[in-house]
Design brief:
This protein has about 80 residues and is mainly alpha-helical. It has 3 helices and 3 strands, in the order αβααββ. A hairpin with a 5-residue loop joins strand 2 and strand 3 (about 75). It is globular, with a radius of gyration of 14 Å.
Length: about 80
């Protein structure tokens, strides 16, 4: 039997999402030439499509990542 406290809460989901953001940022910083499609990122980090899209969209909106004309996500250039 699963206790009610074992169900994910909005708070734990937020913490998990923030942790995933940190992981993806660390990967791109460790490998600045990394270029991934959404599907490749989904496979690399074992994410469902919705979560992966949300992560990549968030990092793009933060100007951490940018998309190439081919749709690859890469580290945004710093000025």
């Amino acid at each position: 039997m699963v206790a009610a406290t074992d169900a994910p809460t909005a708070s734990t989901l937020h913490v998990d999402f923030v942790r995933l953001l940190e992981i993806v940022r660390a990967e791109y910083l460790e490998m600045p030439g990394l270029r991934l499609t959404g599907r490749q990122a989904q496979r690399l980090w074992a994410l469902d499509a919705a979560t992966c899209d949300a992560l990549l969209d968030m990092l793009e909106s933060m100007h951490f990542l940018r998309r190439s004309p081919m749709g690859d996500y890469m580290l945004a250039l710093r000025d």
